[in-house]
Specification:
alpha+beta, Pnp Oxidase, Chain A, seven-stranded antiparallel beta sheet
Length: about 160
Amino acid sequence: MTLDSKEQRRILGKFATGVTVASTKIGDETWGMTANAVTSLSLEPPLVILCIQKEGQSRAKFEEGGCFALNILSVDQQEISDRFAFKGPKDFSGLDTTTAKTGAPILKDALGWVDCQLKEILPGGDHDIFVGEIVAGGAPEEGSPLLYFSGKYAKLPT
């Protein structure tokens, strides 16, 4: 017998995660989505994983883009997380961004970021696993992360 999906969500919600905005660029179009199903995969070569819902509107955009950036959000960027978490336009208009090597949008005020070339897409249940090779990255020395815990935003105690 498999675990009920609502119970799985409740249990694994106890695992605090950072919050990112994953971004890509297709021609002149930019696209982003809030994601916390991300992780570092390998140091040699430098790889990360981004998991995207198969039936979601973002999946095709990230495959077509062939690249992505992971923008690690700071505690002060909850509004940006909300902006990219819901259905609707997913562009970066009005945000202060830059690019590195792939052209994927990078939030200038992000707590950290990695710019990645898409290397592989693997099946993973109702999600696909996008494996990206890091080609550039950066992070300031200070800052506090935006966290997600038990179905809501959280922050580290000060």
